[in-house]
Amino acid sequence: MYKVNEIFETIQGEGSYTGTPAIFLRLQGCPVGCSWCDTKQTWEIDPELQLSPAAILEKKADSDHWCSLTSAEVVQLFADKSYRAKHVVITGGEPCMYDLRPLCELLHSQGFSTQIETSGTFEVLAPDSTWVTVSPKVNMKGGYQVLRTAMERANEIKHPVAMEKHVEELLALLQGLDLTNKLVYLQPISQKAKATQLAIEFCKQHNWRLSVQVHKYLGIN
Questions:
Q1: Which partner from 24, 138, 173, 182 sits 20 to 30 angstroms from 151, CA to CA?
Q2: What are the helix and strand counts (H, E) for the chain?
Q3: pTM, whole model, 2 decimals?
Q4: φ and ψ at 15, to 5 degrees?
Q5: Cβ atoms within 10 A of the Cβ of 77, count?
């Protein structure tokens, strides 16, 4: 069973899949504790806040309510909602708190591609064909360490930055890591002008890529 905070169809606004129509499956639960997190409503799993899947689908605003769904129920729900996107982004919260192999394998069998957005602080349990985006969260309140195995599994590393020390943290994580066939992005935190300019300068310096949260500029989910 997967604890689901929300499901919606939109476009992916970050990283290498930017602009791709996607179904977002946001899972409940995250102990990492990022101070600037924009989905803090997903942190706690309160049994008293469990709702029906139908109620979760009808949510009009962010909340910490959630529902339980099996892999088969997720796929059926996509069909019931007549979603047209064939790319599924599993995010959170921290989705890698869950074993995502059964869900991803079923989605693949139904013609979907899958992507996981993770902090890199939990083992990535997903098929080889799942695209893994690691946004490494370093020295956060929860005390979790970024796992080397998660960094090695990543297809893209998308690091949030607001100041130079965040780039230094990324360089330390990349030390000795084989970057063959991996994409490295810097993503300015909260679209702030200073953070954006810093990210641009370091992208040019290291031949990395810039990721901006396009959906926020467009004013969509």
A1: 24
A2: 7, 9
A3: 0.94
A4: 65, -160
A5: 20
